[in-house]
Design brief:
Blueprint: H1 6-9, H2 22-34, E1 40-45, H3 51-63, H4 77-84, E2 90-94, H5 101-110, E3 121-126, H6 133-144, E4 150-156, H7 164-167, E5 171-175, H8 180-194, H9 200-209, H10 214-227, H11 235-242, H12 248-258, H13 262-274, H14 279-298, H15 301-307, H16 312-321, H17 327-343, H18 350-362, H19 370-388, E6 400-401, E7 404-405, H20 429-436, H21 438-443, H22 449-457, E8 458-461, E9 472-475, H23 478-493, H24 501-507
Parallel strand pairs: 1-4, 1-5, 2-3, 3-4
Antiparallel strand pairs: 6-7, 8-9
Helix pairs in contact: 3-4, 5-6, 8-9, 9-10, 9-11, 10-11, 12-13, 13-18, 14-15, 14-17, 17-18, 19-24, 22-23
Length: 517
């Protein structure tokens, strides 16, 4: 006998075997047990959630000679005939290929004849939204007042395309996406029956990739088993078989983007492409990762665990990432990747588009939108934060001049009155940014006398004569210089819990000034 796909081999035969749709199964079982059956049902929901399977089970249950707790027994002649497809009482119609008025008229002509066996004639119309307007109109009267022995079961994935006149004549059941835990448990059960060894982590990844569809999950599982025949199914093997990226690489990708390192971000993407990861799947997985990150960043821990279906390791990674990226920034990344996803549908060179999108994410200056401006401000604030993490000491000439206290600076020539002052235009761009945002930098310090002296008496200068990539801080009073020096001493001795400004100044090329004897 030829091989039968897993999703066909293990299709549910009774209501109890249907997974993840308890709200529907319980209602239908009670209707069968009490005889309160409807003349028309509408099953709607995403693909692979059990609409057609439940319709077939219901068709057997209403005709079963010995139903068991509302489910078909599966052993009587009627159940066997319906299961084998030889029964004349259950008619399945694919509306995608039989969507004309003449097809519906054939049904209308047939419903006047009673069933040859069993109690009911059941018409299962799959993808009913594909019917033409004329076909819907032809079905209306029969659907509203069918003979007592006829039941219509309409199934669709796009209920929005079904006319309201049809909806109002049916009892509607919405099939939910099946959660990852339920799909994983079902696959574990089937793997035990098939005698295939598989890691739980591998099955969870397949369940997440199925996006709530049991049929998709079993199809992906079948594909992985075929790829690694007679081998244990591991997480790494599943990634390779499905051509998908490990979600842990996205946290690294975001960190490079946060740092503005577009080259490193593109290299990570290139490595994934070389491993065989499909570009469209990479973008989809990246968006999904950002979605999870956004939910974790904007929700309480309890709500996040309920909405984000990931392993404990991935949840820890997401929680760590929320300390490094803001919700506004996450939404900007999602916008760029969503635009990329739309443009890739008709693109011939999807790789170039993906690389361009990563560069746009890492370099907000390439965009003019409001969110990109906020990202540029974030990068600037990060530089300012680096500045604030080191000791802060004023610069000037050697010795005292008037009421100013001059302090020696490493490798700094003595400044004279003929210097002509700073030339801002000659300063490097990064130093210009610090100068332009000096007030914001100072306001970021802890409130106190030290901050007040900097606000009232300090200014940033650049030595255009030496053309050094350094900034100098001048204070216009001796008391202000004393406060700064005392702050530095206390900081070094550990008396004050303040930031270490020395190391930060060195990062942007600003000199660390030693106090003169």
């Amino acid at each position: 006998m030829s091989y039968v796909a897993l999703y066909r081999k293990f299709r549910p035969r009774t209501f109890d075997e249907v997974k993840g749709q308890d709200h529907i199964v319980t209602t239908l079982k009670n209707q069968v047990k009490t005889g309160r059956l409807q003349h028309a049902y509408l099953f709607t929901g995403t693909r692979g959630t059990g609409k057609t399977s439940v319709a077939k089970i219901l068709a057997r249950a209403v005709n079963c000679e010995h139903p068991v707790d509302g489910s078909p027994c599966g052993s009587c002649e009627t159940c066997r005939n319906i299961s084998s497809g030889t029964s004349m009482n259950v008619i399945e119609i694919d509306a995608a290929s039989n969507n004309g008025v003449e097809n519906i008229r054939e049904i209308i002509d047939e419903v006047q004849y009673r069933p040859t066996e069993g109690k009911y004639k059941v018409y299962i119309i799959d993808e009913v939204h594909m019917l033409s307007t004329g076909a819907f109109n032809a079905l209306l009267k029969t659907l509203e007042e069918p003979p007592s022995y006829v039941i219509f079961i309409l199934a669709t994935t796009e209920v929005g395309k079904v006319p309201i006149t049809i909806l109002s004549r049916c009892q509607r059941y919405d099939f939910h996406r099946i959660d990852t835990a339920t799909i994983t448990a079902r696959m574990r059960e089937l793997m035990d029956k098939e005698g295939v060894e598989a890691e739980d982590k591998a099955l969870r990844f397949i369940a997440r990739a199925a996006d709530g569809s049991m049929r998709d999950a079993l199809s992906l599982l079948d594909r992985c088993i075929a790829f690694y025949m007679d081998q244990e199914l591991t997480y790494e093997k599943v990634l390779k078989a499905l051509g998908e990226a490990d979600t842990t690489i996205f946290s690294t990708e975001i960190r490079y983007i946060q740092d503005g390192n577009a080259g490193a971000a593109v290299r990570i993407f290139e490595k994934q492409v070389q491993r065989g990861v499909e570009i469209g799947q990479f973008v989809t997985d990246f968006i999904w990762y950002l979605r999870n990150l956004l939910l974790v960043a904007t929700s309480s821990s309890a709500d996040a665990e309920e909405m984000v279906d990931v392993s404990a390791e991935q949840m820890a990674d997401l929680n760590e990432m929320t300390n490094e990226v803001t919700p506004d920034l996450i939404m900007r990344y999602i916008r760029i990747l969503s635009e990329l996803q739309s443009s890739m549908r008709y693109a011939t060179n999807r790789r170039v588009l993906a690389e361009t999108a990563l560069i746009r994410m890492a370099k907000p200056q390439t965009e003019t939108g409001d969110d990109s401006v906020l990202d540029r401000l974030r990068q600037l604030e990060a530089k300012v934060a680096d500045l604030l993490s080191g000791d802060f000491v004023p610069a000037g000439g050697e010795g005292q001049k008037g009421d100013q206290r001059g302090l020696p600076v490493t490798d700094l020539p003595e400044k004279t009155e003929d210097d002509g002052g700073p030339l801002p235009d000659a300063a490097p761009e990064d130093l210009k940014e610090v100068c332009a945002n000096w007030n914001k930098l100072v306001r970021g310090l802890k409130e106190g006398l030290f901050r007040e002296q900097l606000e009232d008496h300090a200014s940033v200068q650049y030595n255009a004569d030496t053309l050094e990539n350094k900034l100098y801080i001048e204070l216009d009073s001796g008391p202000a210089a004393n406060v700064v020096l005392r702050h530095r001493k206390d900081n070094r001795s550990g008396n004050l819990k303040t930031v270490d400004l020395d190391s930060c100044l060195e990062k942007i090329g600003m000199p660390v000034i030693e106090e003169e004897d």
